[in-house]
């Protein structure tokens, strides 16, 4: 009889309905030892049952079930710079796997997840664990990762902290969305346009944020909105900006990155008509909106209502701007024998698509803005991220003249 760990919560089932996978990839150069990587993946899956699980159909929805012993490391020769389609997981009926694409002494090492398994912070913690174990294996040390219990869904963790869903219960039982998944035909990887500040420019932007008493995320959010106004011709006060918020540190008691599967809320901000179309004032407005939304518990409610919200890919809203900010990618212990060239975050979804979402990250001291897209021309996509970075760069270059404002 199949062993069932637990039912998927509504906040997790939405990623089954949207067929959503994502990949965190390191581009490396040097002597990558596949046997050490295999040992690290095996140790991780042995310590964390969820990594080796599969999603099973049950009578009234979906459940995490034991997946048994299966291959979860895949190595091929090819172009390390080509987008890695995280839907490879669907082809192998996996929720977690590591895919390596090699060419000479370069390789792309892609840790891939079904999104019900992890959000960005949890994914980064798993990535750090993978490379730490790889380092242990290359050094001949024993691989003994701490056991990881099956993580609780956000609904349970919020309820334990007194956050209950507002509004009346659904008048009728929620119907689970069933999909006939054809991975070979339906899954596509987006193209990725990216632009970055230098390390010195990133440091200067952080200094500007500190002087102006705004957050780095506020400045980047303002730059995104100003770029969207410039590129799309939509007035600033008509844009709707939706951005992800990690709730872990904002709950009482707080949560560690590995404590749950997806502990993200989101904030929705529409600039007031009297907000100046300038970087710092707009950043302040974004920060203040987030502060108030958290104070009144609005952001904390959003994951509890996610299953009742329309799929963003189906929304005909040209004024909608979405962003997820991973923050600073941690230094990865265990990669010392390799030259790490870059970190790439990339999602893969069904051909039903998904509205493009800006991705922001800081890796090796450089702030980057990515635009994963399906329909834009390469030139248009690159111009979009160049415009965002250009706005931030201009603010840094003019910062000495604005000190004391």
UniProtKB/TrEMBL annotation:
A single BP term in Gene Ontology: glycerolipid biosynthetic process
Annotated Phthiocerol/phthiodiolone dimycocerosyl transferase C-terminal domain residues: 190-370
Reactions mediated catalytically: 2 a mycocerosyl-[mycocerosic acid synthase] + a phthiocerol = a dimycocerosyl phthiocerol + 2 holo-[mycocerosic acid synthase]; 2 a mycocerosyl-[mycocerosic acid synthase] + a phthiodiolone = a dimycocerosyl phthiodiolone + 2 holo-[mycocerosic acid synthase]; 2 a mycocerosyl-[mycocerosic acid synthase] + a phenolphthiocerol = a dimycocerosyl phenolphthiocerol + 2 holo-[mycocerosic acid synthase]
Lineage: superkingdom: Bacteria
GO molecular function annotation: diacylglycerol O-acyltransferase activity
Pfam family, one: WS_DGAT_cat
Domain O-acyltransferase WSD1-like N-terminal: 103-161
InterPro entries: CAT-like_dom_sf (IPR023213), O-acyltransferase_WSD1_N (IPR004255), PapA_C (IPR031641)
E.C. number: 2.3.1.282
Keyword tags: Acyltransferase, Lipid biosynthesis, Lipid metabolism, Transferase
Family to which the UniProt record says this protein belongs: Belongs to the acyltransferase PapA5 family.
Protein's name in the database: Phthiocerol/phthiodiolone dimycocerosyl transferase
């Amino acid at each position: 009889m199949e062993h069932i760990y637990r039912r998927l919560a509504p906040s997790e089932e939405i990623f089954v309905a949207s067929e959503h996978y994502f990949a965190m990839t390191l581009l490396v150069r040097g002597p990558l030892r596949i046997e050490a990587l295999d040992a690290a993946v095996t140790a991780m899956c042995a310590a964390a049952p969820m990594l080796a699980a599969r999603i099973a159909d049950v009578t009234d929805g979906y459940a995490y079930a034991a997946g048994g012993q299966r291959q979860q490391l895949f190595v091929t020769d090819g172009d390390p710079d080509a987008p890695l389609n995280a839907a490879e997981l669907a082809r192998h009926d996996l929720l977690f796997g590591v895919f390596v694409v090699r060419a000479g002494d370069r390789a792309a090492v892609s840790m891939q997840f079904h999104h019900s398994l992890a959000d960005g912070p949890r994914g980064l913690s798993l990535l750090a664990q993978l490379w730490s174990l790889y380092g242990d294996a290359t050094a001949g040390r024993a691989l003994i990762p701490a056991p990881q219990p099956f993580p609780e869904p956000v609904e349970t963790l919020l309820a334990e902290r007194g956050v209950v869903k507002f509004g009346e219960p659904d008048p009728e039982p929620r119907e689970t969305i069933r999909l006939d998944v054809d991975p070979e035909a339906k899954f596509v990887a987006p193209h990725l346009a990216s632009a970055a500040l230098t390390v010195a420019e990133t440091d200067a932007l952080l200094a500007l944020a500190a002087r102006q008493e705004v957050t780095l995320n506020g400045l980047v959010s303002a730059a995104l909105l100003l770029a969207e106004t410039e590129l799309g011709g939509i007035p600033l006060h008509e844009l709707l900006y939706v951005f992800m918020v990690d709730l872990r540190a904002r709950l009482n008691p707080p949560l560690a990155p590995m404590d749950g599967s997806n502990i993200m809320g989101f904030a929705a901000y529409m600039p007031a008509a009297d907000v100046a179309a300038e970087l710092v004032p707009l950043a302040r407005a974004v920060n203040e909106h987030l502060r108030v939304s958290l104070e009144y518990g609005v952001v904390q409610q959003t994951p509890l209502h996610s299953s009742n919200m329309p799929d963003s890919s189906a929304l005909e809203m040209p004024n909608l701007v979405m962003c997820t900010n991973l923050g600073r990618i941690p230094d990865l212990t265990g990669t010392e024998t390799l030259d790490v060239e870059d970190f790439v975050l990339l999602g893969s979804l069904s051909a039903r698509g998904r509205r493009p979402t800006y991705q922001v990250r800081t890796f090796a001291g450089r702030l980057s803005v990515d635009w994963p897209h399906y329909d834009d021309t390469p030139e248009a996509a690159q111009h979009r991220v160049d415009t965002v970075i250009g706005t931030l760069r201009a603010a840094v270059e003019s910062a000495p003249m604005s000190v004391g404002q």
